[in-house]
Amino acid sequence: MNDKNIVEVLLVEDNPRDAELTIRALKRHNLANQLFHVRDGAEALDFLFARGKYEGRPTDISPKVVLLDLKLPKVNGLEVLRLMKDDSHLHTIPVVMVTSSAEDPDIKAAYNLGANGYVIKPVQFDAFMEAMSNLGVYWLMVNHPMK
Amino acid sequence: MNKSLLSSLSGYPNWEALKITGIYLILGSVWILFSGRLATISPYKDWGYLLVTALLLYWLINRFASRLQANIKQLHLLINALPALISYVDSNRHYQFTNESYREWFGEKAQGKYLEEALGQAAYQKISKYVDRALSGETVYYETEIPYQDGGARFVNATYIPDVAANGQVKGFFALVQDISEQKEAREKLRQWADAFEGCAHGIAIDDPDTNRIVVCNPAFANMHKCRVEDIVGFSILSLYAPSDHEHVRANIERADQIGHARYESRMIRKDGSIFPVQMDIVSVLGDDGELLYRVTTSQDISERKRAEKILQESEERYRMVSELTSDYAYKDRVEADGSIMPEWFTESFTKITGYTLEETRMAGFWQQILYPEDIPILVSHIQKILSGQSDADEVRVITKAGETRWLRDFANPIWDADQKRVVSLYGAVQDITESKNAEVALQQSEERFASVFHSSPTPIALTRLADGKIMNVNEAFCQLFGYSHEEIIGHTSLELGISDPESRQKAVETLKEKGVIRDLEQKARNRNGAQLHILNSVETINVNGESYALTTIIDITERKRAEAALQKTYDELEIKVQERTAALSQANALLQALLDYMPDQIYFKDLRCRFIRNSRSQASLLGLSDPIQAVGKTDFDFFPHAAKAYADEQEVMRSGKPLVDLEEWVVWPSGTETWVSTTKVPLRNSDGETIGIFGISRDITERKHAEQAVQQLNADLEQQAVQLQNANKELEAFSYSVSHDLRAPLRAIDGYTRILVEDYEAIIDAEGKRVCSVISAEARRMGQLIDDLLTFSRLGRKEMHLSNIEMKALAVSTLNELISESDRERVEFKIASLPAVQADSSLMHQVWINLLSNALKFTSKKERAIIEVGSKSGQDEIIYYVHDSGAGFDMDYANKLFGVFQRLHSESEFEGTGVGLAIVQRIIRRHGGRVWAEGEVGNGATFYFALPREENHHE
To answer: What is the ipTM of this complex?
Structure first.
């Protein structure tokens, strides 16, 4: 479904249902073509840092956006965010927290670590779809990433 | 042959005649006896006898006569040879006979002349009384000066021998007059010599060289030996000397005999054995034949001299020491004709100061060498002045042999020789003034420092000439104090400048005259602007170059005076207060007594040894006494078995001065009562702050103690519960967190997948199927809403509140704008009154407004026209806000259920909602310390009230 070489969206989401819905939403707007899905924090890091099972991945072109859930197995979302923003190559990649948590501490922590956006997943499907597609449109079409 | 002479001799028995007569008688007798015999021999016997006797007679007479003649001639020669006047004056005062001497004396013989005529009137007057006496038969001796007319005045020795006849009549007198002028002179001289001899302070003794004994000595000599002249005369010379000196003396005597004179010192010994030193001069006097006539020894008791010599020696010794120690030296130089100066002598100090000896000074160029180069011109002009005859002093520097630079002050005096018309020598004294020069420099520096101190001192100082009162110098501070410049002040008196008050000044001047100093005299003064100043004046009289000046230092006490005046006023006010207080105090004492009598607390006063001084009735009764007075003088030990700790506590309090406050203890009183007491012990101090005892007050806190213990127990329980609650809270928090994540996700999936189902399989699902799917989605959404509401409700209970001043109307309006749509605006009339601000948490209040306003909108949504009102009312301690809507209203019977969680008074089909909104509102308002209630009528609207406390007083 995706060409490993060119990844425009990195989706880090452990819930397969939410993942499916998100991909469905993006697909609606033809934004899911270059989407790569990883299921936990560790895998996300391996992918981003081109290590582990992703060693050798060409890193010259970065994803246009990373959609990052907070609650993840192995390494949680905040940790992934921190490591990304600490890295000299990765910190320019926009990261949007996409999570169910509306807790203030989480929001605060994410922004403190340098998150570029924080979106709370609505329960309602319609709203969810709309939010996801807005996200996609903005980050993939509207936003001008760093080259 | 002189008849008179013969006749004058007739009176005396003539032994010659007798002798001759005797011889004649003998011859006659012999003739008589033997004449008869002779007759026979010759007839011519008688003629022979006659011849013999005639011859005898001739011989006798011849002899007698020639002898007589010879005698007379001798006498004549004698008489004329005698240098004296010999004369015979008759009773008529004629000179009957005068000898040759008269011719010598008067130029001619006076024979036949009257006395007066011969001698002169003056002389005759002198001698006439003697003449009279002689002519009266008296033998007269006299010595006098007679002014002879010829031959001048002579001192004469006259003897008049009266020639008395057999009948007693004085026929005349013989006069023998000797000119004893020379003799007199000689006698005078001799007396003088004798006086000199006698009176000479030196002892003179004359000894006979043959016997070596003292022939004569003068009183001084005898005095030296402390005896009389008679005691010395006749003693040997040597016996007068100390035995140890005899050799020495003998040697000197021999020397004197040889060379005529010897002088020596020796020691003489007195009769009493005491020895004294003498200086002897012996002169051995020789006669014309060179034989030693006598020795004249002049001796002098030189004890004094010896002592003086010793003193002098000591003095010289001292002088030597002094001159060695002193920094001065004296010198004498000789000035040659060519003007060169040769040093003659220096005292030793010169060497000490300069390190050079006298010889070294005589070397050429000496002074150029040792003089400090810059000072050479000074020396040159100094010398020029001196050589011109003037004394001069100068100060120059020299470099000593050791290389040190010293200042010398030379005062030189020339000695002018009038004949040579030049200075022939000069003498002088030189002082080493290095120290004083250094002192001078130091003084100068000191003066400079003084001057700088004078000028920079912050204290005003002035220097005034006493003679005319003019100010000579002032420092900056002075100028500033009075506001005048330096120039304006100098040369004027303080009166002229108007800075001193005439009366004060007069007083100061008088005090200064009397005592010479003024110390801190308070005076009034005026500055340039006329403002009055108060100053403290201190004045010293100093002498500069002979003139008297006053050195004044001023302290400006104007401020102080003002402060003093203010203070005095305060004191006066205080005085009044004190009097009031004193009255109050005695009242207070009465109250104290009342306190002690009626106060239930145990009060006591103890002294430094913890003995009771005074206590309250209540304590007295607890101690088992009927009257407080019985406790006086006793200690705790008299009442309690274990009083040591209390005693120690009290001693510590008194020692350290720190009170013991609220010490709680269990006391068993002597009266039997047992209580808990809270005791405070405070050191009792007198007015000087010294501890004089201790004051204690004990309160019965038995009940309180029990209460405290109960409270403590309660607190412990509460704490336990609080801990439990905290734990519960934490659990709840964790729970909520997981809920917010974990519960929502499945709901999302349910809704989502149902939609997928509908969308993707639209073709094969019928209307009923779609309806069923929509129900599933709706229910999933609802559950999500419920969860959100629950979470909100829960969070709001735990969230920290940050209070700030909330503008309620602005908040309500903005919240409303968030909630309403265009259609709402058309349909509903909004009336929002002005609302008072309140201290609250802004986000929470926002939530309140959201809930209340959204409720109002929701329950009026079915009405075509509706009103929503927001207002406030003022309560006693609270502000009441309300939201009124004209919507569906509710049944008042169930009002109490309105604010319960999940409680609804309408069905979901009527109005959607989870029933949490109002519970949230209630929770928030309660957290703010307020309250909520509502009023309503079915079908006729509802009003929801919430009240918040005024100002602070929030509690969670």
So the answer is: 0.71
